[in-house]
Amino acid sequence: MSKLIEKKWGDEIDPEGRRISSEELRAIRRPRIRLHEGQESPKDRETYGYSDQEGKKEYLKTGKVQNALQTWQEVLRHTPNYAPALEALADLAVEQEQPVKAVEHYRLGLKHQKFYRSAAHKLSSIYLKNAKYEEAKALLDENISINPKDGISYFLLGQTLYQQSHFNLACEAIKKAQNLH
Q1: pLDDT digit string (tens) for 85-95?
Q2: Beta strand segments in the chain, E
Q3: Which residues, 6 or more positions from 33, have their beta carbon under 8 angstroms from its beta carbon?
Q4: Which 3-state string (H, E, C) describes 65-132?
Q5: What are phi and psi of 108, to 5 degrees?
Q6: Residue 64, pLDDT above cutoff 90
Q7: How does pLDDT run across 10-56, given as a tens digit for each residue?
Q8: Structural contact between residues 160 and 130, judged by C-beta atoms closer than 8 angstroms
Q9: Are 37 and 116 in contact (CB under 8 A)?
Q10: Quick check: 31 and 55 in contact, CB under 8 A?
């Protein structure tokens, strides 16, 4: 999207001198995604058109990863610390087999929204895959302390503990995960 030049009150023109319609202006100022994790409702779907998860899946399904990157970068230009957009960029980095970039985006998203469970789950999975068990355990312990009924965190903790040869603790964590689901 082009950068806007504001001429006077209520009269907005793009750099090429073209007048911007109110619909285009709304699209620029309000990206078509939900505002917070877990806040999706029928009204959000009606207002924004689709959730960020659906948009991400659609881009990946059609192979338009570059379009997805541009979309989420545009969202971050308007709302720089928006954790779901950072998670979406991290997910795209995972799809492109760029784990370092993915970890960076997940960490940044968690920095701005500490209680962002899906990003914490995905980041701990990357840590597990790369044998960074202490980092995974620390992240999962923190996630469990925030939300003790998070079965996925217990399951991932069980996998982490198993990899560290703490078999009894791993069994307890996995049983706890089973009881929560």
Answers
A1: 899 899 888 88
A2: 5-8, 11-13
A3: 48, 50, 51, 52, 55, 75, 84, 85
A4: HHHHHHHHHHHHHHCCCCHHHHHHHHHHHHHCCCHHHHHHHHHHHHHHCCCCHHHHHHHHHHHHHCCC
A5: -65, -40
A6: no
A7: 445 555 556 655 555 454 444 444 434 444 434 433 333 344 555 55
A8: no
A9: yes
A10: no
Structure tokens at 168: 């009894």
CA distance 159 to 162: 5
- How many residues appear in the chain? 181
Helix 65-78 / helix 52-62 crossing angle, nearest 10 deg: 150
Q: pLDDT tens digit string along 114-159?
A: 778 899 999 999 999 999 999 999 999 999 999 999 999 999 999 9
Higher pLDDT, 8 or 57: 57
Which residues sit opposite 12 in a β-bridge?
6
Gap between the Cα atoms of 56 and 88, Å rounded = 7
Q: What is the largest CA-CA distance in the chain?
A: 69
Which among 165, 164, 162 is positioned nearest to 177, based on CA atoms? 162
Q: Which pair of structure tokens corresponds to residue 32?
A: 């078509």
The answer to whether the predicted template modeling score (pTM) of the entire model surpasses 0.70 is no
Contacts of 181 (CB under 8 A, 6+ apart): 151
- What distances in angstroms separate CA 173 from CA 45, 129, 154, one per listed residue? 36, 19, 5
Residue with token string 């469970």? 117
Judged by DSSP in three states, 2 sits in: coil
DSSP state of 17: S
